[in-house]
Amino acid sequence: MVSVALVSILCPDRVGLVAAVADCLFEAGVNLRDTSFAVLGKGAEFTSVCELPHGVTTTALQDELAQLPELDKAEIEVTPYGFDPVPGPTGKITHRIEVSGGDQLGLIARLAEIFTQNGANIVRLDAQKLPEAEGGRYVTRFSVWLPPERAQLCLAAVANTAGSLGLDNRAEAVTAG
Q: Which residues pair with 8 in a beta bridge?
């Protein structure tokens, strides 16, 4: 019987980090489901919903990960995952939206409210302040599920909000494939 666990790692960023973690999980017979990785300043975050094979416990897996040299000084948690690992219909990405320009206090809150008002679900969010050497722009990317009957209205509201703040906006529909 397969159990499902959430693997969460917060650690200093370094080259080879994802390779080391993925290899350790593979060697343990763990199947990765929804997984994300991000560099956060000089730190990094790896999160994955994992299927653990029979005989592999969350404690044993956490101990295995903690032995990796790449995870020195890491916060590692492997806990049972209490949700259905199969996403529902609103977990499917229908649109990708990027808003970029000068940093605006409350931008994510404003855009998230537009999505809420239109019955949209944010599936993934990535926001990053680029270094001054790269223009110092703030880039926010949303991967969202939009209800078909509200998609155009929602995208127009995002574009209007971005425009009123002097920000660039780009949106694309994601085709099923």
A: 47, 77
Helix or strand holding residue 161 (H, E): helix 151-164
Tens of pLDDT, residue by residue over 8-33, are 999 999 999 999 999 999 999 999 99
Handedness of CA 148, 149, 155, 161 (dihedral sign): negative
Question: Are the CB atoms for 2 and 30 separated by under 8 Å?
Answer: no
Residue 133 has a pLDDT of 76
Number of C-beta neighbours around residue 130 at 10 A: 13
Look up tokens 């926001």; give the residue. Answer: 127
List pLDDT tens digits, range 57-69: 999 999 999 999 9
Burial, 98: exposed, middle or buried (Cβ in 10 Å; 0-12, 13-18, 19+)?
middle
71 class by beta-carbon count within 10 Å (0-12 exposed, 13-18 middle, 19+ buried): buried
pLDDT tens-digit readout, 122-148: 999 999 988 877 777 899 999 999 999
166 conformational bin, left if phi > 0, alpha if psi -120 to 50, beta if neither: left
pLDDT band (50, 70, 90) for residue 44: very high
Read out DSSP for 111-145?
Answer: HHHHHHHTT-EEEEEEEEE--GGGT--EEEEEEEE
Query: What's the sign of the alpha-carbon dihedral 142, 145, 147, 152?
Result: positive
